[in-house]
Amino acid sequence: MTISQVRGSAPREVGARMVVRSDGAFNGTIGGGALEYDVIRQACALMDKKAVGLHVHTFSLGPDLGQCCGGWVEIFIEIVPSVLKDLSKKLAKLEEEGPFATRAVIRFEEPVQREIFDWSPPHPVALENGILKEHFGQTASPLALFGAGHVGRALMLALAPLPFRVSWVDTRRDYFPSHVPSNVSCIHLKDPVNAVASVPSGAYVVVMTHDHALDQRLVDAALRRGDLAYVGMIGSKTKKARVLSRLRSAGVTNEQLNRLVCPIGISGITSKQPPQIAASVAAQLLMVRDQNESKERSNFALAKSGSPDH
Fold this sequence. Notes:
Blueprint: E1 2-7, E2 18-20, E3 26-28, H1 33-48, E4 53-60, E5 72-79, H2 85-97, E6 100-105, E7 115-117, E8 125-128, E9 131-136, E10 141-146, H3 150-158, E11 164-170, E12 184-188, H4 193-196, E13 204-207, H5 212-225, E14 230-233, H6 237-249, H7 254-257, E15 260-261, H8 274-294
Parallel strand pairs: 10-11, 10-13, 11-12, 13-14, 14-15
Antiparallel strand pairs: 1-5, 2-3, 4-5, 6-7, 6-9, 8-9
């Protein structure tokens, strides 16, 4: 199912999708609540009737479903037959590699046969004159995570479902788990500082190694670049003051030093447990990513306000 149009307030945005199986199990969400429950029920009913193709449904969230949103949504319910299983797998694999667009001619009670084409959409989905155009996937922001200790591992897992492509770097090969999420690459280096130069412009750098001296060297290299979206270091305010003093003596400018986020994580979460720290840092990274995309504020305005001692 795909939300194709929205008017007024709605639980999710245009392009939100979910997949429902014939047994009622599902992945993704179009907002939860009464709307999602009713759409799942309708999708299962269509599958029970052996329906095929694209079905368009509209909902007034207040009158129809009793939801407080009060808006109106249009939802495409597509029944995907088993003959399109291979195509679905191909598109799912392609989506892991980055965004792409498809086009399909919609015919009554016929499966949707998509083809990939070049499209820069104003909206993620559009149906005009019988032609369905869709945009799939999301551009993942590159993120270099230095340190495979307890907090590094927790943060790696917290970033698994988020729009980041993680390069996970450590000097200790045996600290990497045998399996990691698909958006994570494990990199073993004797001197991780060498990896800073290869981090893409606009990337995010998070430093949390087992060695404070190494942390300082990594932060030094990252801040001197001046083209990174985020440079964060785990640690207390005391650690930050010590590192800043040493970097200033080493010739790092005040303008560069002001870009360092330390302590890391959003305010209000004070726990020292790795999963809680990871959740706090992941939330901060999302905040910075959103404001970088909107270009409404400087890269670090939100990140630097009120971070706890992580």
